[in-house]
Design a protein that fits this description.
Layout lengths: L20 E6 L4 E6 L3 E7 L4 E8 L5 E3 L2 E3 L5 E3 L2 E5 L4 E5 L5
Antiparallel strand pairs: 1-2, 2-3, 3-4, 5-6, 7-8, 8-9
């Protein structure tokens, strides 16, 4: 990072890639669920020193176009050990109970 010029300024202006993500910490496992605007769910272990990606999977297709990029614009909902996500065409439900 030290050798590269930042694409965005501290005030958020400038040009370059940007990403939207929603996070939920799962206290029993110590892991964090990260849902990004590409429609992926990432399970990660986070600490002040490192990011360790445990798994990643595509859970819904991005369908909304913003600045020429296809995105999933809405955040997911978690309820009763289920993950609900939607795009402009469908709503999906994933069972997170692990067979309980």
């Amino acid at each position: 990072w030290a050798a590269e010029e930042p694409l965005r300024k501290a005030d958020g202006s400038g040009r370059g890639p940007w990403l939207q993500a929603f996070t939920v910490h799962h206290e029993p496992s110590g892991r964090t669920l990260i849902f990004n605007d590409h429609g992926e769910m990432i399970v990660a272990e986070l600490s002040p020193k490192k990011y360790h990606e445990v798994s990643r999977m595509s859970i819904i297709d991005p369908t909304h176009t913003v600045s020429g990029r296809l995105l999933v614009w809405s955040h997911p909902a978690l309820a009763n050990k289920r993950l609900y996500c939607r795009n402009d065409k469908e709503i999906r439900c994933w069972d997170l109970s692990g067979g309980e």
